[in-house]
Write a structure and sequence with these properties.
Layout: E1 19-20, H1 41-48, E2 59-66, H2 72-81, E3 94-103, E4 106-115, H3 119-126, E5 134-140, H4 144-148, H5 150-159, E6 167-173, H6 180-197, E7 200-203, H7 212-249
Parallel strand pairs: 1-3, 2-4, 2-5, 5-6, 6-7
Antiparallel strand pairs: 3-4
The protein binds guanosine-5'-triphosphate and magnesium ion (MG).
Length: 252
């Protein structure tokens, strides 16, 4: 009697609306992680030649932090479930969602950690910060104080992570509630802060869905690029190592 061994093919195919073929553009060139129009050439070639190593099995950890009630949970729910709840239900500790993408033909997943903004749950939430590849700091574009607290959220998140190895995003939510004049005022401050902390700035609305998909596609794409580049570098140094050991073997 033969036994069927479950394999990776058991996973359902990636949803058609999670397929990324082009590099999604930044929100504002003034505050962007990078402003290129296309995916890195080396990354594209590696994907075409299926030289992406373990990236296809990778799950990048993304943490979402920020003041209470700024809209972190709504942002994740709009993207992952296409749902919006107008009633506030505080996150207790943490929650997480998995999202599977296909970037340049390679499977790639994000694990989105939704953390609590309320002071009394912060202690539990911060134990989940470690190992993040991406940190998303959320503020409410109608609440200047929540932008003012962004630096503190970043500082706390970086205590658990290597600052040189994370990608940062500063995200203003509830854009639907602000008038153009109010919005442009806070945008100036937010862009300035994003430049200072080297984060990419985005503004969006989970109620209308404006920019939500674009934002997460950008997050997934930039995290993917970094992972593929690291894989290329790793295999490059492996080759160099191989050559050296061969040389030693023949005493050259
Ligand atoms: N109008 C509008 N309301 C929003 C938007 N995003 C969130 N809200 C509302 O803001 C409130 C708080 O949203 P949550 O997503 O629960 O906030 P949170 O940041 O997860 O809060 P904590 O879990 O306590 O840290 C809820 O009443 C939401 O309906 C938005 O884009 N537009
Ligand atoms: Mg929440």
């Amino acid at each position: 009697m033969s036994v069927r061994v479950p394999s990776m093919s058991v996973l359902p195919p990636v949803r058609r609306d999670r397929v990324i073929a082009q590099l999604p553009q930044c929100y504002s060139k003034k505050a962007a992680v990078q402003t290129k129009d296309e995916f890195n050439f080396k990354v594209k070639t590696a994907c075409q030649e299926q030289r992406t190593g373990t990236v296809g099995f990778k799950i990048a950890k993304v943490i979402v932090v920020g003041d209470l009630a700024v809209g972190k949970t709504c942002l994740i729910n709009r993207f992952c479930k296409d749902a919006f709840d107008k009633n506030y239900k505080a996150t207790i500790g943490v929650d997480f969602e998995m999202e599977r993408f296909e970037v340049l033909g390679v499977p790639f997943s994000l694990q989105l950690w939704d953390t609590a903004g309320q002071e009394r749950f912060k202690c539990i939430a911060s134990t989940y910060y470690r190992g993040a590849q991406t940190i998303i700091i959320v503020f409410d574009v109608n609440d200047v104080a929540s932008l003012g607290h962004a630096r503190q959220w970043l500082e706390d998140a970086l205590k658990e992570n290597d600052p040189t190895n994370v990608q940062l995003f500063l995200v203003g939510t509830k854009k639907d509630l602000s008038s153009p004049a109010q919005y442009s005022q806070i945008e100036q401050d937010a862009t300035k802060l994003a430049e200072e902390i080297k984060a990419e700035y985005w503004a969006l609305s989970s109620l209308t869905g404006e920019n939500v998909k674009e934002f997460f596609f950008r997050v997934a794409s930039l995290a993917f690029e970094v992972n593929v580049l690291a894989e290329i570098e790793k295999s490059g140094s492996r080759h160099i190592g191989d050559v050296i050991s061969e040389c030693t073997a023949v005493h050259c």
